[in-house]
Design a protein that fits this description.
heterodimer, A: mainly alpha, ABC transporter involved in vitamin B12 uptake, BtuC, 2 strands, 73% helix, globular, B: Rossmann fold, Rossmann fold, 2 domains, six-stranded mixed sheet, 11 helices
Chain lengths: 346, 336
Amino acid sequence: MYTWQKVTKFLSRGSVIFTFLLFLLAVIVDQTDMGTVPLRVFVGVSALNFTLRAAVPLMLGAMSGILCERSGIINIGIEGMMLAGAFGAFAVKVQTNAMPLGLSLFLSTLTALLLGGLMAYIHALLSIRYKVDQIIGGTVIIMLAAGLSSYFFNPNWMSVGKFGTIEIPLLSSIPVLGRVLFSNGLITYIALLLVIFLHVMLFHSRWGLRTRAVGEHPRAADTVGINVNRVRYVNTVLGGMVAGLAGAFLVLEAVGQFKEGMTAGRGFIALAAMIFGNWTPVGAFGASILFGYTQALQNELLLAGIVDIPRHFISMLPYVVTIVVVAGIVGRTRPPAAIGKVYESE
Amino acid sequence: MRKYTIGLVSVVLLLSLLLSACGGAADDDTFKIGLVTDVGRVNDRSFNQSAWEGVEAAAEALDMPTDIRYIETMDATDYEDNIRQFIQEGYDVIVTVGFALGDVTIRMAQENPDIKFIGVDQFQGEVVPNVAGLIFYEDRAGYLAGVLAANLTESGTIAGVFGTDLVPPVVAFKEGYEAGARAVNPNINIISTYHPGDIGQAFTDPEWGAATAAQAIDQGADVIFGAGGVTGNGALEETATREGLYCIGVDSDQWHTVPGARPCLVSSAMKLITPAVSDLIQMAAAGTFPGGNYFGDAGLAPFHDFAPQIPQALQDELVSIREGLESGAISTGYGQ
């Protein structure tokens, strides 16, 4: 227990320090003449914006995973819940194109949350009531979402409008920080706040204590009167809703349209981010930022055209970093003790 | 018992699927035209759709019974199987859309000399009598887009978000765009990039297109040229969410195909696939099918709502540059 907390603390602190240094460097580059081309590639505002944008679906997916897995339900179906949310958001957005943009976006986001939650409810039902192996249950969710969304998807559908940028007054005029953190779409703000909210809730609230107890030692939790399976149902459905929000981000904020299989493995990368972050919200946030940053770097190098190496090597960058990180660090993480185990009270 | 019922039902379902696949054969005097898309949908609001509209236009123009079908390619490994389906069912003309289908189209044509093949975006190195490679001077359309962009920009930085350099027409668009912009302002800052993935994803990744457009905008670009199927469309729609920016579409008049881009869409670097495909099919029906390369028209789409903002002098200049490109007085420098 003690070493686990140490690892958690180290990772959380590491990601905070990493993020802080990145920003410090970015401010220096932006405000002084030091911003020669190579430095701009690494810490320019555009690189940081790209990082955040690529990281938002990952961090939401990772939060979804944490909600489920901290209560003891393995969730490899994040990808499917995300895709279901994305499709639901798109379908409703198309039907409500004629309405005022705000209302239409609200209804679409709501649908994404509900559909994500519904998929998660199916997963919870399979895992808890029918005691299906949770890896298989999660795979079912992924296949179900992929199949249904491409069956019902009509390529003639065209959504008009997406979440625009909201500039937070005053804060958005801070150099660099303002343009990166305080001038984003609504779902990005929600995702960032959710990371902090979930961290506080998980480690400093009665609900968080119960969740962790159920995930670590369900028998003990049951003994003190916690309804283990109810906690698991609630957490899984909440997790599904967060994954649905990630889908809504892709359709309503990032792209504006839906495409079959558009989550493109983000649910799995989110899973990796969750594990890398050792099942803590702040750790998973740091991991998401790192994965997003590698993608940003890849694109910055391509855009700047300053390196004279074949772009195929640059394209490998995100994967190489992922392998190095996963092979080098993930080996030392520790999942919740009761994860994946069916609980039956005596 | 219940297990058996489920088994029986699934067998019946499977059989019905199989049966529905072999539909009734059409009469021999029907002129049959088949189209195989590149990876993606036939209504992709990009080149697959333009080619299909050409098939539809030809069917309407032809004075004989026609049967038109398309097969949507889901994976790059299916090109040959999809073409073979049309061959086996005795189609008269087969349209294959996209550079990536070039090799397999020529191979199929050599095996089936009685069938006419139209290869959109497929440059023919050697003349195969029953293959018409429909190609365009994309560099000219790109050049015009570059001239337009360089005249519109206030920041002095323009950007391009492109599909992939594995496809020559996309390279032609990019080189033409940059040459056109530099012809107006030699010191202009151009940031442009190709999709980092392989040919299978390069045209179907709107999120990358949008994120890259956002990145270019962060670096000061105020005109974005999005050229690369759905990927490029993502860049256009992203640009449309910002104030005071311009974007330029590609292939068809994207004012009609991507309504979400209208707030920024000044024009599109068009290649007129639809009329060219229609013409080639009609030539095939009339027995005057041209083997080898066939050049279609390329140029800028109308300005639509932006027309009042484009000075008349610039509009006239674009027309005269187009004439210069066609006569050879102006060179884009591409392919030399």
